[in-house]
Amino acid sequence: MQIKITATIITLNEKKHIRDVIQNVQKICSEVIVVDSFSSDETCEIAESLGARVIKQKYLGDGGQKAFCEQFATNEWILSIDADERLEDEAIDYLKNLDLENEKFDAYSLRRKSFIGKKFIKQWYPDRVVRLYNKSKCGYNTMGEHGYVECKNYKNLDVDMLHYSFDNFGVLVSKADRFAVNLAKVRYAEGKRASWYDPFVHGAAAFFKGLILKGGIFGGIQEWHVAFASAYNSYMKYVIMIEMQENEQK
């Protein structure tokens, strides 16, 4: 008999996405848990109308919020998915036939196909993430800007999730500054320090990685835009860290 899976989703004003993501995971999951950070739109009402259990919780950070979800899952296996993500049909078929009971792994990673609008971003692929896991053997970290499942015994699956990252390039640019500030604070809190040359070195490295190492140069002008945004994000992260160091010394 197929092992039952609980889907967990964290939300804040996800009216646009919540219906599609719940209906997507219900194809393989017997239970859907939505932990909502007090949305002001109809996210919770839509989720409940589709049979999901909704819990309200002040935002604890990405990892913290996803770890908070785990206690409400009645199944041992959890599929953690963001509201702007979907499992491809091939992934659904594969997971339906995955023998979780007899496999030797505690978790599984999937590839992510990320989009800006309708444009697939080649340099962000495969962007592997561990999302299907046994909550008794592993779980989400609670520190840092981005959450991830802490697990050593996992298997990489060659199936994809779709990730509708940003509606357009304007949204990407508008969020770049916030990402840079948050990452700088996290790295600084971890004890990392920056030298005067780090913004230039890391900014150039991010641009080179996206276009050359990740093959973005063959994806058209949109890939150049993304590479510039990544370089800017990396550059500003280290600029902000240097500023924090200077302020500390005053």
Task: Please provide a written account of the structure.
With 250 residues, the chain is α/β, with parallel strands linked by helices. The chain folds into two domains: 5-166, Spore Coat Polysaccharide Biosynthesis Protein SpsA, Chain A (Alpha-Beta Complex), CATH 3.90.550.10; 169-249. Helix content is 39%, strand content 24%. It has seven helices and eleven strands. It has helices at 18-25, 43-49, 62-69, 89-96, 169-189, 198-213, 221-249, and strands at 5-11, 31-36, 53-56, 77-80, 85-87, 107-116, 119-120, 129-134, 139-140, 149-150, 154-166. The strands form two sheets. Strands 1, 2, 3, 4, 5, 6, 7, 8 and 11 form a nine-stranded mixed beta sheet that branches. Helix 5 packs parallel to helix 7 (221-249) and helix 6 runs antiparallel to helix 7 (221-249). The relative contact order is 0.13. The model has no long low-confidence stretch (mean pLDDT 92).
Rg, please?
A: 19 Å
Distance between the termini: 65 Å
Mind summarizing the main beta sheet? 9 strands, mixed
In terms of structural class, how would the helical and strand content be classed? Answer: alpha/beta
CATH class of the largest domain: Alpha Beta
Question: Roughly what is the average pLDDT, rounded to an integer?
Answer: 92
The domain tally reads 2
Beta-strand fraction estimate? 15-25%
CATH topology type of the largest domain: Spore Coat Polysaccharide Biosynthesis Protein SpsA, Chain A
| Overall body shape | globular
What are the low-pLDDT stretches, counting only 5+ consecutive residues below 50?
Answer: none
Instruction: Give the number of helices.
Output: 7
Give me the strand/helix succession. EHEHEHEEHEEEEEEHHH
| CATH architecture field of the largest domain | Alpha-Beta Complex
CATH superfamily of the largest domain: Spore Coat Polysaccharide Biosynthesis Protein SpsA, Chain A
Helix content: 25-40%
